[in-house]
Every structure is written in structure tokens, then in C-alpha cells.
Amino acid sequence: MNVFKYLKDSYRQIVFFLLIILITDLVLISSVDLKKSLLDIFYLNILFFFVFLIFLAIDYTKWRNSYKDLKRALDARENIDSFIPQGNRLEEILIRDIIELKNKEKLEETEKLKKNLEEINDYITKWVHEIKIPLSVCELIADKLEDEGQYDLSKELIQETERMNFLVNQVLHMSRASSYSQDFIVEEVNLSSLVKNVVKNNMNLFISKKIELEMGNLDFNIFTDKKWAYYVIEQIVNNACKYVDVHGKIKIQGEENDESVILTIWDNGMGIPEKDIDRIFDRGFTGENGRKTTKSTGMGLYICKKVADQLNFNIEVSSEVSKYTEFKIIFYKLSDYLKVTKM
Predict the structure, then answer these.
(1) Which end of the chain is more exposed for a tag (fewer CB within 10 A), N or C?
(2) Same domain, residue pair 343 and 232
(3) Name one GO biological process term (predicted).
């Protein structure tokens, strides 16, 4: 907030003062002996200018102080509520009224959007539960086909039904994206049991591609939300199955240190290009591999990262094209979990 901006803002006062000086000089010159009074008029003008400069200096100081904190808050994108003008001048009252009106409008708009989002989420939840009924019927039909000896057809139907179930559950999780924290129940969970459930529910993926699965050292207890941790692990395991070749290999291992329990999911699939690895958690990013398979939505890992941020566990990834991809999910122990959640 420099002097030039202040002078530009106060040009009417300056022009008005100069007009007053000019009129005063004209009146004095026309009413007294010019030769005797010229020096007095000059001194009077100097006095006027000196008084006016003092007035400008005081007014500039007030002007600068009233705006510099607000300008700093705006530049730093801080909360500006404490910098709203509190004076009784008409312009300050109008500014407060305008801000109050805009805040009210934004609040009403936010509440309207929130209500619409809740209605959409309710619809999606109902739709998910409704769609699960015909999917269950498909599973029964697949069992019947298997009993009748149509093993190949039954196998294909089961695989597609499981894929639809996975996608339907992903839609349900996405619909809860705006209120993850309200859906969390942090408890002690056995990691081995969690991983085994994921593998069991995705076993047909392993069987269909004849994937070699190696699991070990998973008997640890972690503190997390069981349902969302299951989702994250399933998403990574599902991706591993998707991107490995037939007769590929997936290893799921656990380890423990003083601060955390680390779950490692490794596969020898196509790998992630180096240019994509920093973006795999971005919303809607499919990358080179996703474009090759045409089955990627770019939302699964995005949701995983959102959940990890909310539950305060970390997901690390390393990869080399055509060699391997390795995800590490780092679950903090209870004392460290509490430390992280308080940060």
C-alpha cells in the first residue's frame, strides 16, 4: 500500500484543497494592495500547504494501517474475518452489510448443494443395493450351470459377476467421498484376516489368470477402519491381478518395526512408467497402462489415497516397467497413530 496509491485514492481531497487555496488567493489579491500583501499571501499559502501535508500524513497512516493487514491476509489466503472494517463510516457499514449478505447467499447455496449431494448419495446407495439382487441371481445361475457341467460358461459368468460387484462397490465408496470421516470406525483389526478375506473374494481373478500367490508374515494387529482398509487392500490387489500376465506372480508380505506395520503387495506385471508414477493417485488419471487395458477408471487409487489421508496411514509405490510394481501400506501403531492424528 504505497503513497502513490493513496494519492490516487485521495485526488478529490487534493483538488478541493488546491481550489480553496486558489479562491482564497484570488479574494485576497482583489481586496488588498498587491504590492504590500503579496509576501503575506505567499507565507499564508506555505502555512496552508504545511497544515494540509500534516493532514495528508495522518490520513495516509490511518489509510495504510486499515488496509495493510487485509492486503497481507488476502495475499497469504488467510481468514479475513478479523480484518473486516469495524468503523461507523457509511462505506464501512456498507462493506459489512455486503459481506454479510454474500456470506448468507454462499451459506444457502452450500446447504442447497449439500442437500442435493445427499439425495444423490441416497439414490446411489439404494441403486447399489438393488443391483446386488440381480448380481446374486447371476451367481446362482453360474452355480446351476456348473452343476449341469457347463464349467467354462459358469466360470466366465462368475468372473464377470465378481467384476460387476467390484465396480458397484467402487461406486458406493465414491458416493461417500464427501463424508469419509463420518463413516470411519477405528478399531483393532487382524491384518492376516483382512488380507485373506480380500484374496478369498477375488480368488477367481487369481484362478482365471493362473496367478501364483505367495503370502506370509501377516499375523499383525493394526488400528484402522476395517471396511475402508479392506477397500484399499482389495483395490491394490485387484490392480495387481489386472496388470500381471497369465502365470504371473503376486506376493503379499507383512513386516513390523517400532512405529508401524507395513503391508507389501508386489507383482511382476507390466509395471508403471516413471512419468506416471507421481500421478497414479490423481483423480481420473489412468496413465499409459490404463489406456492399454481400457478397463481403468482412474478413481480406485484416488479413493485409496483419500482414505489413507483421512485414516493417517501411508501408501508408497515403486515400480520398474516390465519388471515389477510394489505398493507398501504403512499402518501406524496405536501410539504413533494418535500422534499423527493430532498433527
Answers:
(1) C
(2) yes
(3) cellular response to phosphate starvation
